[in-house]
Every structure is written in structure tokens, then in C-alpha cells.
Write a structure and sequence with these properties.
Elements lengths: L25 H26 L7 H20 L10 H19 L5 E9 L1 E6 L3 E2 L4 E9 L3 E3 L10 E5 L9 E5 L3 E2 L4 E6 L6 E6 L4 E12 L7 E12 L5 E7 L5 E2 L4 E7 L1 E8 L2 E8 L1 E8 L5 E5 L5 E4 L2 E9 L4 E9 L1 E4 L6 E2 L4 H8 L1 H23 L2 H4 L3
Antiparallel strand pairs: 1-18, 1-22, 2-9, 2-15, 3-8, 4-6, 4-7, 4-13, 5-12, 6-11, 7-11, 9-10, 10-13, 11-12, 14-21, 15-21, 16-17, 18-19, 20-23, 21-22, 23-24
Helix pairs in contact: 1-2, 3-5, 4-5
Length: 402
């Protein structure tokens, strides 16, 4: 039985759609059907050309070939264009930003922090932030002053070599008297250092306050030159005014109570130092080093919800940008107990060659003050970062539309 010839396709006439075709199948389905139809007709044309004596196509086949070419052109236009692969740069940028943010919170320190220092030391120094009283009226058993400019109110010749020493005791049967250090008012910027005197039980006060004056009130019998001096009986009350010059003035003091000497409460300071400078000379050179005077104590961080650090003996600690007040300072004959509260811009421990910042990091500050916000930000950032990483590693075939 002879094979039936393939019926020619009318130009511009698409194949009839079956009733079961779904129009929603889209351009991709229609393009695949046109490709299959064109492949079948081309195979039939090749068979006809092989049967022709000269291997040529009949005019009908040539017209059909032109129709197939037009159909293939339509198929190319209907073929879906795969969507471009999403760029991985947003995910990389998100990962880099998260890393930088976490690193900044871990290693960057806050600009200022509030502290409370409760420490003991062999000596310490500070600078007054305003004109104020350094001491309250204080009864003394001994006072020695050196380095001043002048003394007013003293009988006889002035003290030799700018030195003055006075001793008095109300219980001395042979020479009963008293010495009172009046309120010592110093100007802003005055530099003060309080330390143990080389003489046991005495406090040593070094003051640099040009233009200030120290007032002493003498009553009764006073011994010039100290405990071994000859008695000098004063009729009534006498006041000595000691002018402080441009040089540092050294003052040795011995109080009458259990607390041998104390500063006035709430002294405002803008510099604070718990160290002293030592100079070591030898072999033609002089070595200078800072030595810690700390003997113990505790440093509390108010901004970190009361977290604290324990200060070890001779632990180096330096303060920068101080703005606060010395709430109490007392000397008991062995060491100085001080309490300071205020803000600092820098807090460094360790030696000059290996300093370590004790300033809170931003992460510590956020954890102590905004824990809920920090948790929410961390959870949101973690979710966003995980989403970006999943998009980064998602296979290309899974990202391409079907």
C-alpha cells in the first residue's frame, strides 16, 4: 500500500489547537510545539529530495520550506528568555557591613564613661577645676611650710630660707596652745599632691597655686621650729598669712584626731593621677619612669550597671579627660583613702610600652543600657545575613524560572 504523502501546510496557517490545550501554558509550550512540527516536516522534505533524480525539491516543497522558516522565526521570538542570575554583590556587601559593625562594637570604645573610684594610695595628685576650698578649718599639732614667698603676722625676724615650722599641743603642761589651719582656698588650675611625709604620721601637701595664701591661727603657747623649739607664748589669738609664690610650696601637717589630715569634701577636679615620677641617674643618663602609688581599691563603671574592677597593689592606671569630684580624702598616717566620682575620656592600665584601655566597648555599653534593642538588632541582622547567604549559595538552576 503506497505511503500517503504529507499534506502541505498552508502559509500563515497555524496548526489547529485541540480543545484540551490550556492557553495559560504560555509561550514556552507553543514554541516547543512549533519546533517539533518543523522537525517532522524537514525530515519529510529530505526524504522527497533523496527520491528526486537530481536531489531537488518540488515547488510545493519549497513553498512549504518558506512557511517552516517563518514558523521557526516565530518560535525563536516566543522562546522564553531565562531571567538573569541575581547579583551576588548585595549579599557580599551585607556580609561585609555586618562584619564591620560587629568588629566596631567589639573593639571601639565609648568616648566618655562615668566611674566611681574607691581606692587607697601612698600618694595622688589632682588639679582643681574651679576656685574652691581645699581644706576645712583643721586643728594641727604640727605644721611645716617651705618654698613660700613671704609671711605676715609673725613677731621678730622672718623665717630663714623661706622655711617655717610650728608645733603646739593643748595638753602640754609646759606649753599649752593650738594651731589651726584655716580654710585653704585655691584658684582654678591649682595643682595639688597629697602624700605620706618622710616623717611618720605626717601628711605631705605639695601645692602649686601662685597668688594664693595659707592662713594659720595661733593661740597660746606655740613652739617655733617644731617640737624641740623654744616655747613662744602668744597673748590672745594671732594669725599668720603665708603667701604662696610661683614655686611649689611643701607643707607637712599633723592633725590632732584619729584622721591626721583630710581634704574638704566634694573637691572638683579635672585631672587625677595615681602615680609618681621617679628619676634614676647613672652612667651619664637619667631614666624617668612613672610608678603606680595604688595600694588597693575598686573601680566601678556606673555606665555598665555597676560592673567593677579590683585594683591590685602598684597596678598602673591613668585617667584622661577627668571631670568629677573628690568626695572624700583622708590620711590615717599610713595611707590615703580617696573616693572619686565623675566622667573620664580615657582609662588606661599597664605600662607605657603595653597600655590596655579599660574604657567600655560599644558592645558592653549597649548590652548594659539597651539590652532589648541590642537583641532585636542582632536577631534582625542575623536573619538578613542568613537570607543573603542562602541566596548567595542557591544553585543557578534553582534560581532560573521553569
Amino acid at each position: 500500500m503506497p505511503a500517503e504523502e504529507d499534506a502541505p501546510i498552508e502559509s500563515g496557517t497555524p496548526p489547529p489547537a485541540s480543545a484540551g490545550d490550556d492557553p495559560a501554558s504560555g509561550d514556552a509550550s507553543l514554541a516547543h510545539r512549533l519546533e517539533r512540527l518543523a522537525a517532522g516536516r524537514l525530515e519529510a522534505m529530505l526524504d522527497d529530495a533523496q527520491k528526486h533524480p537530481q536531489g531537488l525539491l518540488s515547488p510545493e516543497r519549497l513553498r512549504e520550506l518558506a512557511t517552516l522558516a517563518a514558523l521557526l522565526g516565530v518560535s525563536d521570538r516566543l522562546a522564553p528568555v531565562p531571567p538573569p542570575s541575581p547579583s551576588r554583590w548585595p549579599a557580599a556587601a551585607a556580609l561585609a557591613s555586618a562584619t564591620i559593625a560587629v568588629g566596631a562594637m567589639l573593639f571601639l570604645h565609648v568616648a566618655r564613661t562615668e566611674i566611681e573610684l574607691d581606692a587607697t594610695a601612698s600618694e595622688f595628685a589632682f588639679t582643681l577645676a574651679r576656685t574652691q576650698a581645699l581644706t576645712e578649718p583643721t586643728p594641727l599639732r604640727f605644721v611645716g611650710v617651705a618654698g613660700f614667698d613671704a609671711v605676715e603676722g609673725q613677731d621678730g625676724n622672718g623665717p630663714a630660707h623661706r622655711r617655717l615650722a610650728l608645733a603646739a599641743s593643748p595638753t602640754d603642761a609646759g606649753c599649752a596652745g593650738s594651731i589651726t589651719l584655716d580654710r585653704l582656698i585655691l584658684p582654678r588650675g591649682a595643682e595639688v599632691r597629697l602624700a605620706r611625709s618622710p616623717v611618720p604620721q605626717r601628711a605631705h601637701l605639695a601645692v602649686h597655686a601662685p597668688g594664693a595664701s595659707l592662713q594659720l591661727t595661733l593661740d597660746g603657747c606655740v613652739r617655733p621650729g617644731g617640737d624641740t623649739g623654744a616655747p613662744s607664748i602668744t597673748r590672745g589669738v594671732r594669725t599668720l598669712s603665708i603667701a604662696l609664690g610661683r614655686d611649689d610650696v611643701d607643707i607637712d601637717l599633723l592633725g590632732t584626731g584619729d584622721t591626721l589630715f583630710a581634704l574638704a569634701p566634694f573637691v572638683h577636679a579635672d585631672e587625677l593621677s595615681l602615680s609618681r615620677v621617679e628619676e634614676i641617674a647613672g652612667d651619664g643618663i637619667t631614666l624617668v619612669r612613672h610608678v603606680s602609688t595604688v595600694t588597693g581599691g575598686t573601680l566601678l563603671f556606673d555606665a555598665l550597671d555597676g560592673q567593677s574592677r579590683t585594683l591590685r597593689v602598684a597596678e598602673p592606671i591613668r585617667f584622661e579627660g577627668v571631670d568629677g569630684e573628690l568626695r572624700s580624702v583622708a590620711f590615717d598616717g599610713k595611707q590615703i583613702a580617696l573616693r572619686f566620682h565623675g566622667e573620664v575620656r580615657g582609662l588606661v592600665s599597664g605600662g607605657d610600652s603595653h597600655p590596655r584601655s579599660w574604657m567600655p566597648t560599644w558592645l558592653e555599653w549597649l548590652k548594659a543600657n539597651h539590652a532589648a534593642s541590642l537583641f532585636l538588632a542582632a536577631a534582625t541582622s542575623g536573619f538578613a545575613l542568613l537570607t543573603a547567604l542562602l541566596k548567595w549559595w542557591k544553585p543557578a538552576s534553582a534560581r532560573r524560572a521553569p
